[in-house]
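[step 3/7] inverse_fold.run input=structure_tokens len=423
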């Protein structure tokens, strides 16, 4: 384990000088931000020998005990958590029991919460019990409940099978609960999610569809719901439909339709939209309405003017003034997709299926960006991995919008600077 983030944090804080006497392979302290950045890049490129994982944890735990400020303690704890992301049943480092008792009582919520989350990774039963209690406490702050849920999912806590159906009734926890069903197998999970589906907001319904497509035992009831009309096939994003087609085969294609026929004549579609999107028509569009449409349909996957998701390319510097560029990328997003944005599908040993674009990867972990969340997967948990030449962007996005909405969206996409929210 390289523990890249942890190592650079320790160096940047100047703590490594004290540690080097114990571990010669530990990199020298960075004197400024430029040197720190260069050191981090060398670590990523494998040009520096990483510390042994257990030695790393022991040394940083020792540094925690000696740290004289909460700022340093919080940085070290965040580094440890980042280095251990996605892992389970890790042996506690030397001295952790003593220092964790002190830090769990720290007035800083950040420090106490990080300490509890690390405690679960290290198999601390008291920390796990506290997380379960906090998750079920409706009076606890939302961020703390969500952090408790994420840590319990990461540790595959069996109590979640009982708790998740209850959380589906809590508006503040619904989205996190829906996504948690993907991370842990629940016997009646598909039934529980499909029962909740009709009464939920569109973003929650989409999360349910994506979760049901994450496990074969969930996907079969989803197919039944599609066949019976409980869920409209328009609610299935294209990238999710491809995953379901591979998972369920012909029975899914019979209901949903052939993936290759979704937009068989793209040239004709582009010609039709060019007739609609004349310069005169776009000039009369509502730029604020266009921004609202963009925020609703595009921002979860794309950065524009420094804000948004990182699944697809950053649009800020793209050729958005060119109508051909806009239409080609929206009507045929998989036509010429860079490798970095191709769809990667991972099947885990426990049957969970995760699809997304690769955010980062090392010899131990794979980090995938999916809509609305980021998944860290240990490579030891991966059964199969496949890359397909498809984009996660749905091909039929423009077809779901009224002509006026398309005009407004294109007007906003052609902007060259941020647009304020309409007063």
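[step 3/7] decode complete -> sequence:
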């Amino acid at each position: 384990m390289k523990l890249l983030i942890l190592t650079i944090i320790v160096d940047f804080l100047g703590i490594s000088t004290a540690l080097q006497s114990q571990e010669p392979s530990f990199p020298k302290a960075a004197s400024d931000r430029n040197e720190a950045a260069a050191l981090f890049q060398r670590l990523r490129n494998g040009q520096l020998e990483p510390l042994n994982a257990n030695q790393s944890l022991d040394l940083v735990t020792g540094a925690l005990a000696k740290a004289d400020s909460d700022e340093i303690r919080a940085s070290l704890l965040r580094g440890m958590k980042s280095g251990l992301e996605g892992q389970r049943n890790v042996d506690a480092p030397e001295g952790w029991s003593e220092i964790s008792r002190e830090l769990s009582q720290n007035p800083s919520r950040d420090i106490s919460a990080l300490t509890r989350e690390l405690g679960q990774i290290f198999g601390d039963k008291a920390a796990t019990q506290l997380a379960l209690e906090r998750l079920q406490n409706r009076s606890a702050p939302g961020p703390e409940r969500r952090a408790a849920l994420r840590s319990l999912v990461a540790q595959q806590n069996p109590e979640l099978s009982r708790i998740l159906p209850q959380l589906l009734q809590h508006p503040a926890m619904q989205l996190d609960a829906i996504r948690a069903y993907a991370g842990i197998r629940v016997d009646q999970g598909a039934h529980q999610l499909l029962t909740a589906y009709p009464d939920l907001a569109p973003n929650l319904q989409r999360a349910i569809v994506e979760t049901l497509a994450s496990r074969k035992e969930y996907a079969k009831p989803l197919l039944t719901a599609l066949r019976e009309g409980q869920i409209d096939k328009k609610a299935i994003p294209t990238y999710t439909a491809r995953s379901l087609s591979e998972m369920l085969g012909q029975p899914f294609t019979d209901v949903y339709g052939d993936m290759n026929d979704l937009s068989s004549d793209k040239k004709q579609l582009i010609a039709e939209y060019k007739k609609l999107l004349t310069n005169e028509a776009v000039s009369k569009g509502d730029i604020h309405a266009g921004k609202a449409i963009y925020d609703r349909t595009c921002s979860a996957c794309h950065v524009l003017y420094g804000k948004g998701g990182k699944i697809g390319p950053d649009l800020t510097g793209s050729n958005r003034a060119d109508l051909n560029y806009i239409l080609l990328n929206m009507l045929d997003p998989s036509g010429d997709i860079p490798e970095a944005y191709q769809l990667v599908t991972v099947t885990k040993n426990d049957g969970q299926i995760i699809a997304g674009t690769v955010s980062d990867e090392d010899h131990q972990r794979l980090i995938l960006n999916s809509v609305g969340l980021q998944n860290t997967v240990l490579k030891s948990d991966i059964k199969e991995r496949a890359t397909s030449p498809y984009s996660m962007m749905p091909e039929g996005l423009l077809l779901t919008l009224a002509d006026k909405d398309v005009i407004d969206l294109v007007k906003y996409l052609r902007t060259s600077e941020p647009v304020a929210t309409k007063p």
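[step 4/7] annotate
The longest strand covers residues 353-361.
The CA atoms of residues 203 and 241 lie 17 Å apart.
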